[in-house]
Amino acid sequence: MLFGAAPTTFTLLEWTMTELLRHPESPRQLSDVVKVHGYDIAAGTQVLINIWAIQRDVSAWGQDAEELRPGRHLDTVVDFQGQNLKFIPFGSGRRQCPGSGYVVALVEVT
Questions:
Q1: FRET partner for 25 with CA separation of 20 to 30 A, picked from 16, 62, 83, 107?
Q2: What confidence tens digit (pLDDT) does each residue in 27-45 have?
Q3: Which has the closest alpha carbon to 49: 12, 77, 86?
């Protein structure tokens, strides 16, 4: 029963992403001018977060940030709710992945 919902969920997400790519005017854009770390970002700008770089940031992960260490987080309390941005597999804030709880449970059961 647990695995029964997975294929339909994946299909839904695949088609949603396809439609967003086909209609680029739909993704969220800034409505006001904002300042981030001293940079002015104009209204109407679409901001993308470089998750690849975050996951390889030596200041957050140490000198071995590029290495696969499966036990790296065994003694760490992982905050998937977007408060600790070095753990951002499900996004953050209002646009956080609504399926994160399902995925975490699915991985633990598997």
A1: 83
A2: 767 788 989 889 999 988 8
A3: 86
